[in-house]
Amino acid sequence: MEKQLHLNLLGSRPPLAGGLQSSSKPRMGPGRKRDFSPLSWSQYFETMEDVEVESENGKDLFRIYCSGSHGPVLLLLHGGGHSALSWAVFTAVIFNRINCRVVAMDLRAHGDTKVKDPGDLSADTMARDIGKVVEALYGENPPPIMIVGHSMGGAIAVHTASANHVPSLLGLCVIDVVEGTAMDALNSMQNFLRSRPKTFKSLENAIEWSVKSGQIRNIESARVSMGGQVKKCEEPSGSSRVSNTIGEGILEEEEEEEEVEEESNKKKMKEDDQEVKKESIFTWRVELSKTEKYWEGWFRGLSALFLSCSVPKLLLLAGVDRLDKDLTIGQMQGKFQMQVLPQCGHAVHEDAPEKVADALATFMVRHKFTDFKEGYLC
To answer: What are the distances in angstroms from CA 263 to CA 254, 267, 270?
Structure first.
């Protein structure tokens, strides 16, 4: 069970023993606290827009975040339950290293994307979505595109490349998803999803949980990306305090002075418990437990599909134990490049955006897809 829980293939990961890693900011001294306030997408991307594409049931709108105007396009696909905002810090880093454009998109039923059939999360449908968005953005002559996908997004990237939905595909980068480990982990997925909090009283509360649980170990990334994972619930009827709840973090309550008598404390604790129930106004945007029927379709046969893609391929892993037999043989035969980035959680590109950016930039320059930016010392 421990090994199965080691990798959560939907985009999150179970809480880790031992707390945060060295890549996270250190705990501050007594009386000090870390900042869990949300950060805006505009600090990391240049533009945000909704791309309209035709579907069988009408028109679908896919939210995308972009940076850059020249060079090859890095098309970034997030993990299950996450959003394009999970690539925010990585985008700022890679954009300073190489000449490129970045397009990070909210996949079907995720983030702020709005589709007519959000319940269809099959690999084929999601791969077709990628092709439609590329066509809507660039027409019949798209620029060279490198698809980069994490976890579920990595699986969809492989399906997209294999089906040739992006004819101008330059290369493929898959982050921390391997068929064998993924299939093993699916058995314990529902238990993990049930173990997560169902609601948060504020966005700051959700950000704090994501860092302390180990889901995202990089505080900066958590502050910008958690807003894409959770949403505000409909306001409870008759609640007069909901509008004041959003800005309240749990740390403020923890640091209140305790200068009341024991009886008053007990009364206040009871009142606080009732208030927290009323103030649980943020919940997950995606009910991942209801997508179970698609999980196997995302991952089964993934290794063979990955190896069959003719473009240069890069596999980035958080641990070498994730490599299955087919990929081990393929790696020995030189069919793809692999790099292990230790001391990272499953959200590798969020935990260590610099390391992922370095690996991807080096890969793209080596294959002459682009050049390092002038003045950047690699």
So the answer is: 18, 6, 11
